[in-house]
Amino acid sequence: MDAELLSAEFIRHFGHTPLLVRAPGRVNLIGEHTDYNLGFVMPGAINRAVYFAIALNQRQDARLIAYDEQQDRLTITLSSITVGEKQWANYLLGVIAQFQQRGLQVPGFDCIFGGDIPLGAGLSSSAALCCGLAFALNHLLKSGLDRLTLAQIAQGAEHAYAGVRTGLMDQFASLFGQAGHVVRLDCRSLVYDYFPFDTASSHIVLCNSGVKHSLASSEYNTRRYECEQGVAILKQRYPEVASLRDVTLAQLQALGHELGPVVYKRCRYVVEENQRVEAATQALNNGDLDAVGLLMYASHAGLRDEYEVSCRELDVLVEAAQSLPGVFGARMMGGGFGGCTINLVAPEHVPAFEKAMKEAYQRELGLPLETYHTVLVDGVSLVDLDSLA
Ligand code: GAF
Predict the structure, then answer these.
(1) Interface predicted TM-score (ipTM) over 0.95
(2) pTM summary value
(3) Residue 340 contacts residue 122 (beta carbons within 8 Å)
(4) Where is the GHMP kinase C-terminal domain (predicted)?
(5) 238 and 126 co-located in one domain
(6) Are both 53 and 182 inside the same structural domain?
(7) Radius of gyration over alpha carbons of the chain, in Å?
(8) Which of 120, 192, 316, 367 is the least crowded, having the fewest Cβ atoms under 10 Å away?
(9) Do residues 291 and 283 touch, judged by C-beta distance below 8 A?
């Protein structure tokens, strides 16, 4: 699926010429479950995307086609947007509702979308879907919204129409990605810095566990709630604490009893993970990939043992990677309970790494493994077919 094919499909279905938009998925080097705790993350946009062909249609409705869902179709009345039955459509409905809530009228439009971000792989296909439509509508309506507002619109759509209280990382990465860079975002101040990702030294390889456990969404919201409980308790003793970002390990330990074992573990993971992002920033600046890799392994251990969002498949993949030559670091990535691991691998070792990982996954769990050799690209953009020719 690419923009050219979608453009042809759009013209075949709707008979007019579309605007083309590319909205990438994301990886996250380190900083997991820190975004909604107003800490630090270090994601980047990747060379897998959702593409949109879209145009205003002079009608009162939106005609949507999900190319990858057997060209499933939905026509929606724009004057009465509500959550519906089709999951793919809810993300788009959520974006339209967010525009409307901001007082921006959305006129009729036609849209066909599809892409190559594997679904349920933790690569933020849903954020890409929301960001891509928000960007396209902003362009078509000449609304003049900046990228940060578009990210917040996309996040609002996931909260209200998919029921997952995500942080801002995925939407930010999709919209603010920069080719060859990861971006470190301070999720409180929303200040961000780009860090070059030196592909002469290491490449990003994703290993798709192929599993998506059904508790992913409910457990995500539960983790967020547990962190909020932790902050509420910590605040009583330390009024300056506004989020887990403000908490030290000593403060946590002092209140261990009041927090209780589960909330304590969750909070401890978040406090440590924020420290790891800081340390990874230093290590990247020093070109010290061994140090970055060790931090990734520590991040995985925290996600597995303290935050408890890993699963057997992800643990097997990280353990297998750790024993292979040329691997700097590996960890589960994203919300957890399935999806991909992210692996930093020396370029000359990548083919052998992919082969060995597939063999290990088959041997250990009897499961096939897909790997994605991944490149960091620019965030959401228009696609100009002439420039691609
Ligand atoms: C998911 C969420 F959408 C992000 O906001 C983030 O919390 C991530 O899980 C965990 O770091 O991708």
Answers:
(1) yes
(2) 0.97
(3) yes
(4) 282-361
(5) no
(6) yes
(7) 21
(8) 367
(9) yes
